[in-house]
Specification:
Four copies of one chain form a homotetramer. The first copy, chain A, has 14 helices and eleven strands. Chain A is α/β, with parallel strands linked by helices. Chain A folds into two domains: 242 residues, Type I PLP-dependent aspartate aminotransferase-like (Major domain) (Aspartate Aminotransferase, domain 2), CATH 3.40.640; 89 residues, Alpha-Beta Complex (Aspartate Aminotransferase, domain 1), CATH 3.90.1150.10. In chain A, the strands form two sheets. In chain A, strands 1-7-6-5-4-2-3 form a seven-stranded mixed β-sheet, sandwiched between helices. A four-stranded antiparallel β-sheet of chain A has the order 8-9-11-10. In chain A, a hairpin with a 6-residue loop joins strand 8 and strand 9. In chain A, helix 2 packs parallel to helix 10. The relative contact order of chain A is 0.17.
Amino acid sequence: MIFTSDNAFGVAPEILRALGRANGGGVPSYGEDEITKGLTRRFSDVFEHEVAVFPVATGTAANSLALATLTPPFGAILCHEVAHVNVDECGAPEMFSGGAKLIGIGGAAGKIDPEMLAATLKTFRHGDVHQVQPRCLTLTQSNEAGGVYSLPELSRLVGIARDFGLKVHMDGARFANALVALGCSPAEMTWRLGVDVLSFGATKNGAMAAEAVVFFDSELAGDFAFRRKRAGHLFSKMRFLSVQLEAYLEDELWLRNARRANAAAKRLADGLKATDGIEMLGEVEANEVFARLPMAVFKGMMKMEAAFHPWPNPDDAAGGHWMQTIRLVTSFETTDEEVDRFLALVRK
Amino acid sequence: MIFTSDNAFGVAPEILRALGRANGGGVPSYGEDEITKGLTRRFSDVFEHEVAVFPVATGTAANSLALATLTPPFGAILCHEVAHVNVDECGAPEMFSGGAKLIGIGGAAGKIDPEMLAATLKTFRHGDVHQVQPRCLTLTQSNEAGGVYSLPELSRLVGIARDFGLKVHMDGARFANALVALGCSPAEMTWRLGVDVLSFGATKNGAMAAEAVVFFDSELAGDFAFRRKRAGHLFSKMRFLSVQLEAYLEDELWLRNARRANAAAKRLADGLKATDGIEMLGEVEANEVFARLPMAVFKGMMKMEAAFHPWPNPDDAAGGHWMQTIRLVTSFETTDEEVDRFLALVRK
Amino acid sequence: MIFTSDNAFGVAPEILRALGRANGGGVPSYGEDEITKGLTRRFSDVFEHEVAVFPVATGTAANSLALATLTPPFGAILCHEVAHVNVDECGAPEMFSGGAKLIGIGGAAGKIDPEMLAATLKTFRHGDVHQVQPRCLTLTQSNEAGGVYSLPELSRLVGIARDFGLKVHMDGARFANALVALGCSPAEMTWRLGVDVLSFGATKNGAMAAEAVVFFDSELAGDFAFRRKRAGHLFSKMRFLSVQLEAYLEDELWLRNARRANAAAKRLADGLKATDGIEMLGEVEANEVFARLPMAVFKGMMKMEAAFHPWPNPDDAAGGHWMQTIRLVTSFETTDEEVDRFLALVRK
Amino acid sequence: MIFTSDNAFGVAPEILRALGRANGGGVPSYGEDEITKGLTRRFSDVFEHEVAVFPVATGTAANSLALATLTPPFGAILCHEVAHVNVDECGAPEMFSGGAKLIGIGGAAGKIDPEMLAATLKTFRHGDVHQVQPRCLTLTQSNEAGGVYSLPELSRLVGIARDFGLKVHMDGARFANALVALGCSPAEMTWRLGVDVLSFGATKNGAMAAEAVVFFDSELAGDFAFRRKRAGHLFSKMRFLSVQLEAYLEDELWLRNARRANAAAKRLADGLKATDGIEMLGEVEANEVFARLPMAVFKGMMKMEAAFHPWPNPDDAAGGHWMQTIRLVTSFETTDEEVDRFLALVRK
C-alpha cells in the first residue's frame, strides 16, 4: 500500500515492452530517428493542432526549459506560491533562465486567485528598469494541492495573463489526471484557451522517465533545441525516450492509467469521508487526497505497512496538534483492494 | 553495417533485462532506493577506493556538472582544443558553471601536449583579477580522435595540473574502451594518478542512458547533488537509471562489451591497412578508426548500405580533395562478419 | 524644495574638491594607487577592526556582489519582502549569484519580523536537494520604509541567522543616517553583532558615485575581487572612486552630512505632526518621512514647486482614496528654510 | 614620464570642470535628467544618424553589456584571439551573456584576418544544436596591438560577418585615436560600414570613468536598459556620468585629446626608429608604440624614472632573450618634452 507519490511507482508494462521493441539495430542518434520524428504527428493529432514536440526525461527539465524559453533573464514568472517550480526545484527555473524571478501568487486549493494575479500584475510598471518584467504565467494542472482548474477558471487566468502581455505555460506533470477529471479534450484544456507551451508529463503516470514539451506556436520554440542540448537534456539514444511517449499515447494508455489513478483516489476519499473523526481537505478531483487524521490514528498508521507522507498544515499546529494532515497519492498501479485495505487499517 | 557512432547502437540485453527486474512495487524516489544506494559499494569496489557516485542520464550532464563543481564562474577549464566539452556541447560547461572559460590546448591524436599545457598555464598570472583563473584540467580517455593516453602520459599531465593547483577531471565517455586498451585497473587509470573526478560513461557501451559521476574525494562532491537537481538531472524514478549501471558492472559486462568493440576496431583497421590505396590516421587503440580513402572509393561506399561519417581533415583539402578522411566507430554490437563485409565492399 | 530622493541631490563640495586633488600625474590603475590602498587603513580605523574594503560605484553592485560572494547559485537569500534588493534591482542579486533565490519576509516598518524569520527558516530542510538552501540574511539599515533597527533588534535577527548557519549582510545604503540615529559606533552596529559584510553607502549622503563593500572577515572576501572585475565594476582610474570615500570619511563629513539630513527630516516630521488633518506613518528615525495627506492637500501640493513622491499604501485605497500617502526624503543639502517653506505650503 | 597605459592618466580639466557645473540642485535621478537626455541629440549629431545612447562607467561594462544584448547564451562571439574581451576581462562577456562562447581568430597586428574569420565561420553548422551558434563579431578599433583597421579592412570583415548573419560590435575603447589616425568621420568608421553597436570609449582619452554604448539600430537596444540596471551599471546620480560625455564631445575635446596622444606616439616612434639597436614592431597608427630594446638598454631604463611595461613576445624568448619587447602608451597629457626626455634616456 504505497500512497507516498505517483513517482514511487514503476513503469507500465506497455511502456517497458516498447523499450524492448525500440532496441536493436543502429539508428540515427540525437532524435533523428523515426520514432522521435513520428512524435510530431502523434502529438499534433492528440491536440488537434500543429505542434512542436521536444522529449526530455524529467519534469524539472521540461518546466525549466520551457520557462527559460519564454522569459528573459530580467523577466518575472508568475506562479502559485506553492507551485512545484517555486518551492521544489532547488531554483531550476532561475538557473535555466539566467536568473529570472518567480513571483508567487496565493489562492485556495493550489489554484492561483485571479484577483490576486491581476492585483500583482498591476503593481508592476511596464518598462521600468528597476523592476523585473512579468513575461510568463505558469499554471499547474492538476496542481500540487490536488486541485484541478475548471475550464472557465483557466480561461480567466489566461485572459488576465494575455491582457498584461504574458505568455502562458502549463505544468502538466499530472496532465492526464486533470484531463480525465474534467472530461474535456486536450485541445480544450490548452491552446483553445490560449496556453502557449505545455509540459506534458508521462513519468508520474506510467513512463520510466519521459516528458514532452509541447509548443502550440512553433515560433516560440525557436531557441528550445539549443537550450535543451546545452542543459544536457538531449539524449543520444533518443529513441528510448521517444518510444515511451509513443507507447504512452498508444491505445489511450495515458487516459486509461489516469482514470485508474483518479478512481482509486475517489474510492479512497469516499471511504475516508465515511470514517468518523477524519476531516477531508478540498475536493478530490484528480489522484491526490488530503485528509486530517486524529493524531492517534496517524501514529497508529505510521506503524503499519502503509506508506504515505504527513503534509505541512498550519491548522494542525494552531489546533494543538491533535490532528495531522496527510497526503495520499494514487497511481495507475493502485488497486481497489489496496485502497480497501488502507481504509480498513484506518478504521481499526 | 553501422559505423557512424557508438551511440547509434541499442541497449545491451543484460541492461534491458535489468530494467524489467527493477520494475514493480513502490520504492522511494529520487535515489533513496536500494539499487541507487548500492552503487556506492559497487563503484568503490571497482575502483578500490571509497567514492561518491551520482548517476545522470547523459554525458553532457556528467561532464558539465562535474566541471561546474570544480570551477568557479571566474575560473578556466583547460581541455584539448577538439575536446567534446569544447566543441560539441553547445556551451554546456559554460552554462552549468555560470560562464567559466574553456581554454583549448593543442596536441596530436586528440591528446593534450604537456609542453603546451605547461606553457599555457605559465601565461596565466595567479590572482590577477583581469584574467580567468585556471582551476581545472579535463582529459578525455579515450579521446575524440580515437587516441588513448598511456599511464605515463596521463601521469605527466596530471602532474602539471597539480603543480599549478588545478583539479583534474576525466571525461570517460569511452572509459571502458580505454581501460581495456591499456589493460590496467580502473584505479591505476584514475585516482592513483591524481584524477579527482571521473565521468564514467556507460551509454556508448551498452546502456540506454546512464553515466556515473565518480568523486574520488568526497569532499569535492559537496555541491554536486544540488547542482544535479537544479539542472533537472535528478530522476524521480532513479532506480531505472541506477539499475543500468548495476547491470553494466555486473559480471564485467562493461569490460566484455568494450573488448568486443575494440576487437572489431582492430580487425577493421588491420583489414584497411592491408588494402591498397588506403591511408590510416593514428593508431587504433580503442573503438575508433580514422582512415583516408581515395575519393572514388569514398563515393562508392556512400552508395552502399554501410553507414559512417566523413571527417573534417585539412589535409584532404590541401591535397586537392583526392582523398577523403572517414571515421569508423565500432560498438559492443559490431560483429566480425559486419567488419568483413565492410572490408569486402571497400576492396570492391 | 526637493524631497523625492536622496539621490536626486548633488555632490558634497568636499568630495568634489577631492576629485580635483586626486587628478594630475600618472598613477597605477585598477586600484594599485596609494589612495585606494589607504582605504584599508581608514576603514579599519573607523570600524575598529581589520577589514577588507572594495570600492564600487553603485549600491546595486555593492549589494549584489556581496550577496553573490556569500551565496551559491543554489542558495537562498533572506530579506525583507520590500527590501530594495528584492523589488528595485531588476533581479541583480539573481544575476550576480547565478540564480540564487530571494525569500521575502514580512515585518512592520520595513523591519524583518524575527518570529517570521525563524518560522521561514524552519520550513527549509537542510541538505534537501529539492529546495534552495538558505545561506545569507540581508538587513537594510536604515531601511526602505524609513525604519532603523535598534541594536537589540539587529542582534536578535543576526542570532537567528547564525543559529541556522547563515552569513549576514547589511545593506547600508543609508548606513550613516542609521548610525547617527542610534548614536552608536560603526563597530557596535556591525561586526560586534555578527554582521559579516557591509555595503557601506556614500552616494546617497554626498558622494558622486561611491560605495564600499566592507568584509569584516577577510576570509569571506576570497572571490570578491574576481567577481567585481568580471561584472565590470573594477574602475581603471580607481583613485577617483576611492578618493570620494576618503573625503567622505575625512573630518567626519559622512556623520555631519547624515546629521543634517536626519535633523531636516525630524523638523519636517514635527511640523507635519503639528498640522491638522495629516497622519504620520511610523517613527521618523533617519532621513525619510512617510505621511498621509488629505487628497485635496496632496493635489494642491503637486501643483507647487515642491517635489516628492506619492507612495503606494493599500490603506489609501481601502479608505476610498480620501487620503494619499507620500514619502519625503531629506539630504545633506536640505536646509531648515526649505523645510519651513514646505510646511507653509502644506498648511496653506 | 608615464607610458604604462592611457588609463594611468587623470581627467582632462574640461571634464573635471564639467562635473562641478553639473553639481547643485536636485535633479531627477537614474538618467531622467536633462544632461543625460541631451546625449541622444549630441551623439546623433556626431554620428549623423539617429542613435540610442547608454552611458556606463567602464569599458568592461560597455563591451559586455553590448555583446550580451546581441548574443544569446548559446551563441558565439567572434573576436581576435588577443582581444581585450577575450583575455583581459576575467570572463565578463561570458558572465553578462549567460555563458556565450568567445572564439578567438588570429591575424597580424591585432587585426582579425578575414580569411581566417571566413574559414572559422564555415566550420560552424548553422542550426546544429551541438555547437554554439555564431551571432556576433567584435572588432577593436584601435586594437590591443596598436593597430588600426583601414576602412576597406573593416568593410571586408563586416561584410563576412553579415554574410553569415552575424551582428557587428565595435570595441572603441580608443575610438578617437583610431578616428584621428584614419582622418575619417565617425559615421564612415561605423554604421556606414554596417557596424551595429559601438562601445564609444572616453575614459582612456580624458574622462574620469565614462563610456557610451551607441546603438545605430535602436531596435537592437531593446533589452539593454534592463541589462544595464540588472548589472549595477545604472547610476543614480547619472548626470555626473553623462556630463563627462557631454564635455568630451564639446568643442571637439575628444578629437583634440586623441590628436595629442597620437602625435606623441608618432614622435616617440620616430625617435626610437632613429636610434641604433632598437627594432620597431608594427606601424604606429594610434597611441601605442611597440619596440624591441636590447636587454641592456631595457634593464637600464627600468632603473630610470620612466614607467612602461615589458610586453610578452615569443620572439624574445626564441632569440635567447637578448632583446626585450616593450609597450609605450601615450595619452592626451603626454608632452613632447616628456617624449624627448624618454628618448634621451634610451640613447644614453
